[in-house]
Every structure is written in structure tokens, then in C-alpha cells.
Design brief:
This protein is α/β, with parallel strands linked by helices. It has one domain: Maf protein. About 30% of the residues lie in helices and about 25% in strands. The chain has a 6-stranded mixed sheet. Helix 4 packs across helix 5. The two termini are about 15 Å apart. Bound molecules: inosine 5'-triphosphate. Inosine 5'-triphosphate binds next to strand 3.
């Protein structure tokens, strides 16, 4: 038996799920959508991270009535006016990471400014109350994919203060400074003063 509070994580993304388990499992009994036998696609149609995060969390909250949170995140490239941003998962028209990365590198190829940031917004719904937490990490876009760690755009994102991409850096480094780590820290601080 565990005394940890139970929280559903409303994501279909294995990479996010694995990261969250590494970040929060000591504070919360995390339940995946898989464990709830939920495998439907949830609409993400609002055009903002906050709105999409709310769509995902509220869909699961309405169906299962359990405290739950979602993550909507994206890579914002300054030279591309913030693209792929909220469309990061489907930038090339599909969820294929290699195609998404290839399109981004091609669109950015003539730009000197390769600065970018990852942003995540968590939406937590518990007892009909809604809360938001966010995290950002700044960095830049590599000229080619490097490394196999992480997921999504990790092979082309170089966090500020490092020369290697998240794909090359040890997982523990991403765990200590990523956008998701920062949002998770705020969520943990909230949970420490709030009963679920
Ligand atoms: P869920 O909606 O089921 O949570 P998703 O993959 O559709 O999963 P999003 O709509 O939030 O999630 O899309 C975010 C995309 O941004 C994700 O698919 C990755 O391509 C990218 N992304 C987000 N966080 C990332 C990270 O830490 N490292 C690399 N890429 C990331």
C-alpha cells in the first residue's frame, strides 16, 4: 500500500510519461491512461498550450472523475516566429519525429538566429478546480540531429550552457533542468500544500 496521492497523467506520449515517472514518482502515485484502458485520441484544437492542456485534462477528468493533469508542450524557434510551437507534434503534417526535425532544419537553414525554447504547460484538475503550472528552457537548434536520448526534438535542442543536444546529454541533465522538470517542481510544491 502507498500513502502517496494518486494522480492520473493524461498523456499518450511515452516519452513524457517516462520523464514524469522519473520526476514525480517519489511524491505521487502516477496512473497512466494505459492503466485506465484509455487509448482514444483527445482533440487539441484550441491553438494554445493552455487551452490544449485543459482540453486533455478535462476530457479525462470528465470520464474518470479522478484528479488528473496533462502536459501540452512545444518547441518555439525564434527565427521561425515561434514555429513549430503549439503544432510541434504534427509540424510536418504527421507525428513522424524525423520528418518534423527535417522540416524544421530546412526552414531554419538560412537563419543566423538559431535560438529557441521548449515550453510546457501542465493543467491539473482536482475536485472541479483547475490549476496551471509552466516551465521553460532556453537553448538553440543544432545544425543536424545528434544523439538518441529523450524523444521528439531532443536530438536538435542544445540547452543554454551546454554544447551537446538533449539527445546526447545524460538523461539526468535533462531531468535537472528541462521545461518539464521546472513545471513538475511547481506542481510538487503545490501538492505539498494541497490535499488531492
Ligand atoms: P499528449 O498530447 O498525449 O500528451 P503529444 O506528443 O501529442 O502527447 P503535445 O501535443 O504536447 O504532446 O506535443 C508536444 C510535442 O512537442 C511532442 O510531441 C514533441 O514532439 C515536442 N516536445 C515536447 N516536449 C519535448 C521534449 O521534452 N523533448 C523533445 N520534444 C518535445
Amino acid at each position: 500500500m502507498t500513502d502517496l496521492p494518486t494522480l492520473v497523467f493524461a498523456t499518450q506520449n511515452q516519452g513524457k510519461l517516462e520523464e514524469l515517472k522519473g520526476l514525480i514518482a517519489h511524491k505521487v502515485h502516477l496512473v497512466s491512461l494505459n492503466e485506465l484502458n484509455f487509448d482514444e485520441d483527445i482533440a487539441e484544437t484550441t491553438g494554445t498550450l493552455e487551452g490544449n492542456a485543459h482540453q486533455k485534462a478535462s476530457t479525462i477528468y470528465k470520464q474518470f472523475g479522478k484528479p488528473c493533469f496533462s502536459d501540452d508542450s512545444g518547441l518555439f524557434v525564434n527565427g521561425l516566429n515561434g514555429a513549430p510551437g503549439v503544432d510541434s507534434a504534427h509540424y510536418s503534417g504527421s507525428r513522424d519525429n524525423e520528418k518534423n526535425i527535417a522540416l524544421l532544419l530546412s526552414n531554419l537553414s538560412h537563419f543566423k538566429d538559431r535560438s529557441a525554447y521548449f515550453k510546457t504547460v501542465f493543467c491539473l484538475i482536482a475536485h472541479d478546480n483547475t490549476y496551471y503550472f509552466e516551465g521553460i528552457i532556453k537553448g538553440s537548434i543544432a545544425d543536424r540531429p545528434r544523439g538518441n536520448n529523450g524523444f521528439g526534438y531532443d536530438p536538435i535542442f542544445i540547452p543554454e550552457g551546454y554544447d551537446q543536444t538533449f539527445g546526447e546529454l545524460d538523461k539526468e541533465i535533462k531531468k535537472s533542468l528541462s521545461h518539464r522538470a521546472r513545471a513538475t517542481q511547481s506542481l510538487i510544491e503545490f501538492l505539498q500544500k494541497t490535499d488531492l
